[in-house]
Amino acid sequence: MSHTQNYLESVTLEEVEVETLVNYIVLDSVEVNASDIHIEPWEETIAVRIRIAGVLTELIHLPLDLREKLPGRFKVMGGMASHISGIGQDGKANMGPEFGNIQLRISILPTIMGEKVVCRVFDPSSRAFDINQLGFEPQTLEQFVDLLNKPNGLILLNGPTGSGKTTAMYSALMYLIQKHGTTMSIATVEDPVEVPLATIAQAQLQPANGFGFAAALRSLMRQDPEVIMVGEIRDPETAGIAIQAGLTGHLVISTVHSGSTAGVFARLINMNIEPFLLASSIMGILGVRLVRKNCDFCAIPYEPDVAIMQALTPQQIEVGTFRRGEGCEQCSGTGYGGRMSLTELLRVSERIRDAVLEKRPTRQLVNMAIEDGMRTLWDSGVARVLSGETTLEEVAKKTATDQI
Questions:
Q1: How many domains is the chain partitioned into structurally?
Q2: DSSP string covering 346-402, please?
Q3: Are residues 91 and 132 in the same domain?
Q4: 216 to each of 67, 221, 226, 251, 393, how far by Cα in Å?
Q5: Are 150 and 112 members of one domain?
Q6: Which CATH number fits the domain that encloses residue 212?
Q7: 272 and 359 housed in the same domain
Q8: Are 41 and 106 found together in one domain?
Q9: How far is 127 from 226, CA to CA, in rounded Å?
Q10: pTM for the whole thing?
Q11: In degrees rounded to 5, what are phi and psi of residue 157?
Q12: 243 in the same domain as 350
């Protein structure tokens, strides 16, 4: 039974102290390594859900009488305007040793049922940003490091929210710091700055003051940086400045949202970026996804879904060790324990540059990259499946949008 449930059973609704209740919700989340906390008013209850290994799980349901008090408490914790409702607000809270010194990034969103609270949970002590601990395949890691050692150009990362892009970028920056020390000038533009990094100038956006990605990047370019990390390329202006930076002697690392790794080129062309600029500046695009790892305590052999098995070769089926977690106390009944990376690194060769200049379809770019040795996300995932680390269904779900 959770701390939250124990507490609620020990007091009446009138005796509930919101501060204590919130502390227990956070404590329960920390103990199961949840990455996010969702507190949302529904029609009859306030649902408290926590995201464990990428999946939302219900923790408890609270009475609607608390629908104003709970957001109010989080506003106080996050240094927000607690007397104002009906608008979106964001804040941060540092929790004490009893919570493992974790940090909460708090977001308040007004809905028709009341204010919804979402907290992203960060554990600074567990985030060493070691590039060798990212879980990348040896070949991918070697090629990624090779790109980081280039003097200039653009390295882009692609993947959905929560796929590990920021962790990969921070790890890349830490690699450069460890290699060059204080002899290299590194700066970032982020929204928000998630973790302070020593010897790196990190700028946080302030859109209300007109300090968006494009404005921040223009200002940063006058700061004599050698390496620039841009949290995300969202618009044509930011894309144009980042590309120019990559062409004028800077190493630029950033992210772009796209349906697939190779689809990043089409995404940027749709932002009215000239193909010759993309072909000249982009050195590589790293696609990253996180899949749930089978629980070490309850994983047993199983037969994967027949329809998905058809995507495997007879040889893969013959040599594969297909395993799935049954669900136990150690994994809270989920069958999974933690997550691991799937990656694909598209390195821009001469013929891919030519194909970009000619605006070739994304499918052709993928085929060329595979012929050049790129290991796709699907292949990366299948290797994990065949070794019994995760399930075929999990890999299929996380790589479905990347099939062209």
A1: 2
A2: EE--HHHHHHHHTT--HHHHHHHHHHTTPPPHHHHHHHHHHTTSS-HHHHHHHHGGG
A3: no
A4: 38, 9, 16, 17, 42
A5: no
A6: 3.40.50.300
A7: yes
A8: yes
A9: 25
A10: 0.86
A11: -115, 145
A12: yes
* Host domain of residue 343: 127-402
SS3 250: coil
Domain at 58, CATH number: 3.30.450.90
What stretch of H or E contains 69? helix 69-77
- Print pLDDT tens along the chain (404 aa): 789 999 999 999 889 999 999 999 999 999 988 999 999 999 999 999 999 888 899 999 999 999 999 999 999 999 999 989 899 999 999 999 999 999 999 999 999 999 999 999 988 776 779 999 999 999 999 999 999 999 999 999 999 988 999 999 999 999 999 999 999 999 999 988 888 888 999 999 988 888 999 999 999 999 999 999 999 999 999 999 999 999 999 999 999 999 899 999 999 999 999 999 999 999 999 999 999 999 999 999 999 999 999 999 999 999 999 999 999 988 878 899 889 999 999 999 999 999 999 999 999 999 999 999 999 999 999 999 999 999 999 999 999 755 44
Residues 353 and 326: their CA atoms lie apart, in Å, by 47
- The Cα–Cα gap between 342 and 177 comes to 25
Beta partners for residue 40, in sequence order? 47
Q: What is the DSSP string of 83-101?
A: T--SS-EEEEEE--GGGTT
User: How far is the CA of 396 from the CAs of 43, 341, 380, 387, in angstroms?
Assistant: 34, 14, 11, 16
Q: Six-digit token pair at 18? A: 């919101």
The H-assigned helical ranges of 132-226 are: 138-148, 165-180, 213-220
Please check whether residue 92 is in contact with residue 105, taking contact to mean a CB–CB distance below 8 angstroms: yes
For the chain, how many residues are written?
404
Buried b (16+ CB within 10 A) or exposed e, 153-190: bbbbbbbeeebbbbbbbbbbbbbbbeeeeeebbbbbbb
Number of Cβ within a 10 Å radius of residue 288: 26
227 and 254, same domain (yes or no): yes
